[in-house]
Amino acid sequence: MTGTEAGIRVYWQQRAFVVGALLAAVPAVLFGVGITLGQIFVPCAAAIALPLFLAGRPDVFRWTCVVIGASLIGFSLMLMGFGMFLFLPSGVLLLLVPGAEAYERPSAARVLLGTGAVLLAGLCAWAAYWYLFVHGQQVA
């Protein structure tokens, strides 16, 4: 192995998971704008973006993704009644980041990237259905 040994850098697949987690948080933030406890949604979404600023330190990047992902899953389960369950896919995507090391495990990285893409597409469809039909009926 030359200068690009495993664990020395953050791969584009790992950054794609973080960006996907940010995209998955958009419906949650949009929902949070309309409720009284919406101020807890924006800091959660801002925490999802934190690993992107730590890409220069790969170990810190990966551990930050794991800690923020686990925290989001915990918060989304504890505060499910307030709509925080919309952060659950973001937490799952962040937990998949350490496994997407393309140099060390190329096939696993491709499988995880496909899993993340399917999860993100499913989330978009689910969030659109929930916002248009379920939430729309509660507002009216």
From TrEMBL:
Spans traversing the lipid bilayer: 16-34, 40-56, 63-88, 108-132
Keywords attached to this entry: Membrane, Transmembrane, Transmembrane helix
Entry protein name: Uncharacterized protein
